[in-house]
Sequence to fold (126 residues):
Amino acid sequence: MQKRIISTTDAPAVIGPYSQAVEMNGMLFLSGMLPIDPATGELVPGGVREQTGQIFANIRAVLAAAGVTMEQVVKTTVFLQDMSLFGEMNEVYATQFEGSFPSRSAFAVKALPKNALLEIEVIAAR
Fold:
């Protein structure tokens, strides 16, 4: 049982005292990903569709750094600034997986860091 910290410059740097991802016993736990462009450190312009797409690009980058693919994602949690954003997020979300989908929870929250419209966290398994 060895804990391994996963980090990549292909995804946004963390903005607090946490890791991009932690792996233990074949399970990979990604911290909540924001729609930040890793090149600029800023939120991507646009609405929930653009932000959802950027989040998944960030998720893929962290998964790749761990040698894991989207096919190995088993659980996601979506935090939305408002549930009215669910439909547009869901349309983009549905295009991110091939074959079966992971389990998922989705919540509306009062606020998100950097005033993002959404944040997504992921659990994957080797």
Observations:
- The longest strand covers residues 73-80.
- The mean pLDDT is 97.
